[in-house]
Amino acid sequence: MKLDWPSFKEACIDTFLGLPINWVLSYVVLATMLYLAFDSAFIISATQVAVLTVFAIIRKYFIRTHYKRINESVQD
Questions:
Q1: How far, in Å, CA of 63 to CA of 65, rounded?
Q2: pLDDT beyond 90 at 75
Q3: How many helices (H) and strands (E) does the chain have?
Q4: Which domain holds residue 36?
Q5: Is residue 9 part of a domain?
Q6: Residue 5 counted as domain residue
Q7: Quick check: helix, strand or coil at residue 2?
Q8: What value does the CA radius of gyration of the chain take, rounded to a whole number of Å?
Q9: Which of 28, 33, 48, 52 could form a disulfide with 38 if both were Cys (CB 3.0 to 4.6 A apart)?
Q10: Where is pLDDT greater, at 28 or 74?
Q11: Is residue 24 part of a domain?
């Protein structure tokens, strides 16, 4: 199997950029939910999943468009 290095690089960058963002978002959501006295693990986890998913889609969109722009400039 041949490894697609540009895709691998993009996936690594996306993952490593997501780590600190997700860590902070998880903490903020958890702290907020506990402050608001939510004691249901299901509600807290569902809220975290929703918030992290939205931010992951936004992050991936910007990273994908960045690499798309790079690839288009190389082809020109």
A1: 6
A2: no
A3: 2, 0
A4: 17-68
A5: no
A6: no
A7: coil
A8: 17
A9: 33
A10: 28
A11: yes
Task: Say whether 38 sits in a helix, a strand or coil.
Answer: coil
Task: Say which residues have a Cβ less than 8 Å from residue 48's Cβ, sequence separation at least 6.
Answer: 25, 26, 29, 30
Residue 76, pLDDT above cutoff 80: no
Model pLDDT, residue 16: 95
Scored b (16 or more CB within 10 A) or e, 42-76 reads eebeebbeebbeeeeeeeeeebeeebeeeeeeeee
C-alpha 10/C-alpha 68 separation (Å) is 11
Q: Which tokens is 7 given?
A: 């895709």
> At 1, which amino acid appears?
M
Confidence (pTM): 0.81
The answer to whether position 10 is within a domain reads: no
- Looking at the structure of the chain, the number of domains it has is 1
Model confidence at 71, in pLDDT bands (50, 70, 90)? confident
Q: Which sign does the torsion angle of CA 28, 33, 34, 40 carry? A: negative
